[in-house]
Amino acid sequence: MDEHKSNTEPAPLEVTRRTVIETGTTALLLTTLPRAAFAAGPVDGNEPPLSPVKVELQVNGRSHSLTLDPRTTLLDALREHLALTGSKKGCDHGQCGACTVLIEGRRINSCLTLAAMHDGQSITTIEGLAWGDDLHPLQAAFVEHDGFQCGYCTSGQICSAVGMLAESQQGMPSYVTSDLTQPAAELTDAEIRERMSGNICRCAAYPNIVAAIKQAAGMPT
Amino acid sequence: MKAFTYQRADSVAHAAAGSVRPGAKIIAGGTNLLDLMKLQIETPSQIIDINRLPLDKIEETPDGGLRIGTLVRNSDLAADPRVRQRYGVLSRALLAGASAQLRNKATTGGNLLQRTRCYYFYDITKPCNKRNPGSGCAALAGFNRIHAILGTSDYCIATHPSDMAVAMRALDAKVETVNPEGNTKIIPIAEFQRLPGKTPEIETSLKPGEIITAVTLPPPPPGVQVYRKVRDRASYAFALVSVAAIVDSTRGRISSARLAFGGLAHRPWRSAQAEQGLANAPANTATFNTAANAVLEGARGFGGNDFKIPLTRRTLHSVLAEMTRA
């Protein structure tokens, strides 16, 4: 009886925003090149024929072989081809920081680089920061301190903060560092704000973002 | 973006030979080039990626200077202990530019070659002699708050947006290049970037196929180094006015000074007359006034940017007073 029931009435299907996006992306993978060309902008009639590039991307510890339109930015490769939609497209011109990812541990704007330029390199996105269900300390701190309202900039903010704390630990200076000849600057609020200025938050959650970063850095908040 | 083919250069010679082909463009950091390609201001048909070439070292030169490979990232150059100790003005200028993410990607050579942020250069529906030679300049009678007041022409009033180049100009840096025949050349930075004249589309003295391999810094001149940037917000904005200053003074008397300005012209601006006026002069308001007059000789506002004339004067006063305070 139970078996019969399960055949006629489908088990409750959990539909989340993520499954919808992933399904959409799978469909898109079947027609990779035309869709990629579309994503890269309008095509006009007298352009040279497309010669796709083969790229091996190491994303969050997993290797992916992709054949891409050369125009594909790293951000579009992550979102449109690998269904890693955590990295956001805000301005698409390197001005907002929503697309920030880490390449070999260093933060960059993934919208202003071609996927083909990162063949073989190790890429970390927001999806690669947690250990299973254990959030990365910065993710946990953003939750605890309400480091966001709408959340659109958050994955970029968190990836940027991961890169920023590493830069600070390596002794890299910033514009507000008072003495450049000293190896390491103390991470004051002014230092954090200056170092995070490439990440815009239009909800202006900045005070809470600073507090979250301080907590994750082990500083009093 | 327009369609292009992508190629990775396996040697400097390969890159130089490839870049001479029509429609070819070198990509390094790509932070400015891709921005322009998305807007179809740049429309290369071939992209040559030089990121894997071994041009990313900072080395000591025999004369006590530094040789900076063209692929050294802006953040690495700013953080280099030798640059921080000996060329603080360069470190400060780099850190004043862009955001941390962009500095991690942007390269030394690419920074020099970045294009203006003039609104009309960026708006492909508007005339711009730099983007479309002969079409006119919409900035002359347009919104020109960010535009040049020195070295302008009737064809173009755009500024060069780099902070790094301003410090390099004060330091008398030299640009090393190689051409497709393998010949190397050393170009003083003063001759590398050009004023707009009648051909604002020609921005540097690079010939087709000639690519930058390094920038060298001579030994640092004596004195204190400062980079002061005045902008519309505290971080992550282009300069309205900036000054790279290297001033040697003791007890209220200046022995030598170098001043390079950003935000004022189509290239970093220096005034030999201003620097001569500061040499062996007392550090006082009259001396600073004379220097400011010399820097601003021939300055002309276009309406929206008239404020840059007094702003330059005040910025220079403030910087010189701070640097010569006994």
Structure description:
The complex is a heterodimer of chains A (221) and B (326). Chain A has 221 residues and is of the alpha+beta class. Chain A is built from 8 helices and 5 strands. Chain A has helices at 2-8, 17-29, 32-39, 74-81, 137-144, 154-169, 189-195, 206-216; strands spanning 53-59, 62-68, 100-103, 106-109, 122-124. In chain A, helix 5 crosses helix 8 (206-216). The longest helix of chain A is centred in the C-terminal third of the chain and has 16 residues, at 154-169. Mean pLDDT of chain A is 85; it is low at 1-15 and 23-43. Chain B is 30% helix and 21% strand. Chain B contains 13 helices and 13 strands. Chain B has 326 residues and is an alpha+beta fold. In chain B, helix 11 (272-278) packs antiparallel against helix 12. The mean pLDDT of chain B is 97. Chain B starts with a strand and ends with a helix. Chains A and B meet through strand 4, helix 6 and helix 7 of A and helix 2, helix 3, helix 4, helix 5 and helix 6 of B.
